[in-house]
Amino acid sequence: MQVPSHVEYERATSVEHALALLGRPDHRVLAGGHSLIPMMKLRLAQPGVLVDINGLAELSYIKLDGAELRIGALARHADLLDSAVAGQHFPIFHDAERVVADPIVRLWGTIGGSLCQADPSEDLSAVFAAVRAIAVIRGQDGDREVPVREFHLGPYETVIGPGELLAEIRVPVQPGTGSAYEKVARRVGDWSVAAAGAVLRLEKHKIKEAGIGLTAVAAEHFVAAEAEDYLRGKPATEQNFEQAAKIAAEHCHPVPDQRGPEDYKRHLVAELTTRALRRAAARAGASA
Amino acid sequence: MTMRVAVTVNGTEYARDVEPRLLLIHFIRDELGLTGSHWGCDTSNCGSCVVWLDATPVKACTVLAAMADGRIVRTVEDLEQDGCLDPVQQGFIECHGLQCGFCTPGMMMTARWLLDRNPDPAEAEIREVLSGLLCRCTGYENIVRSVRWAAQHPAGHPGESP
Fold first, then answer.
1. Are A100 and A42 in the same domain?
2. Is there a contact between A7 and B20 if contact means CB atoms under 8 Å apart?
3. How far A7 CA lies from chain B's nearest CA (Å)?
């Protein structure tokens, strides 16, 4: 029987109330709880007080606002998977959400919680890094914006400070963009052995901008920056995709574990990056 | 330190003083004595503990009872109404959807939720929705058939033509 350690419980009734409750150093924000509660049961996390933000409906939305897709931190995985506007502009979100955990867990786990958990194997960190999303962090003194590529400091560590709350994720929407996510897991609903997300913005078949996110292979900031640099300005060809994927596989740092040895994971990175780039390019062509 | 948790379960209001760390599945089983929901893997993998929290299925081993305070919970005990089995329950009987029965409460609560959203789901959709629930007996084939049976017999009676 897995029992969390003793903990106090507070329920936030507004974002302001939540921020006021987040003053204690041993607090943890409780959203979907599907990472935090298992960690508490294993005593890997022993917070002194939980601040339950599930009642904050004002943080639960997915909407297009001008040239930005805005996702409230409390939107659930299932909300993102069900969002037509998100899927229309960023099919990568739907690709990824179909393979995050299982449908019941996706009803509760939140987008903000996934990013804040900062698990190296979490799919959405690489996805939001690939699309160059911006994290909006709210504090007593107002909002600050941090690119998702600078949001994670390391495993289970983010830039969110004491008294702060991730409020929103903003994703710039640009025409001519296609995106895709490819994941290999040992079984349905499992963490990635490796996964790759790709975003391509094309102009007359030339790559104006590329985003490549990598999951579970210890890529710095979850991205393959060298591969992105290689692709920028080049034609969207199979050959260039394969070369970029090879660069991505060389520059990440997969750790051998029960999910596979290092060489297998590098092989997956190369193959999955190629597939994701191929599909992203096809989708960019279709949307242009 | 305890806190007061008040929950409406299957239409009945309950209030108990419990520790904030108490999981919802233990609250339902041990505090309220509703043992239809099963406590299985304890790791949100198997889904035997699925109940509805405000009409949304949840793995009750991964929610605190405190989070359910002021909310509505529905468990497998509520499927039968006035002596009539839910079509999902009848489907599990008709199609032999269970052997040991351990996973069955979670399977049925998830299936009922699916059918409320989509009264006529294809087999692939049933398999997808049930993919976060584990059965170690049936190989899932009969469970999927049971849900299909329920979809084809919305009144729930055996022998009724679709």
1. no
2. yes
3. 6
- For residue A1, is it within any domain? no
- What's the gap in Å between the CA of A258 and the closest CA on chain B? 18
| Contact status, residue A163 vs residue A23, Cβ threshold 8 Å | yes
Q: How many CB atoms lie within 10 A of CB B31?
A: 16
Across the interface, of B47, B58, B131, the residue whose CB is closest to A107 is: B58
Q: Is the dihedral of CA B38, A77, A120, A18 positive or negative?
A: negative
State mean pLDDT over A140-147.
97
Residue A143 lies in a domain: yes
Which superfamily does B3-77 belong to?
Beta-grasp domain (3.10.20.30)
Chain length of chain B: 162
> Is the per-residue pLDDT at B162 higher than 60?
no
Reading the block at residue A130, the tokens are 């690939």
Contact B42 A103 (CB under 8 A): no
Contact residues, chain B, for A104 at CB < 8 Å: 47, 50, 57-59, 110, 132-133
Residue A249 has pLDDT above 60, yes or no: yes
Which residue of B57, B64, B132 is in closest CB contact with A37? B64
Which chain A residue has its CA at the smallest distance from B40's CA? A1
pLDDT digits (tens, 9 = 90+) for A187-230: 989 999 999 999 999 999 899 999 999 999 999 999 999 999 99
Q: How many CB atoms lie within 10 A of CB B130?
A: 24
Q: What is the ipTM of this complex?
A: 0.95
Q: A131: which 2 tokens?
A: 């699309």
CB–CB of A9 and B3 under 8 A? yes
A182 and A235, same structural domain?
yes
A28: domain range?
Answer: 8-52
CATH class given for the domain over B87-152: mainly alpha
**A96 and A163 together in one domain:** yes
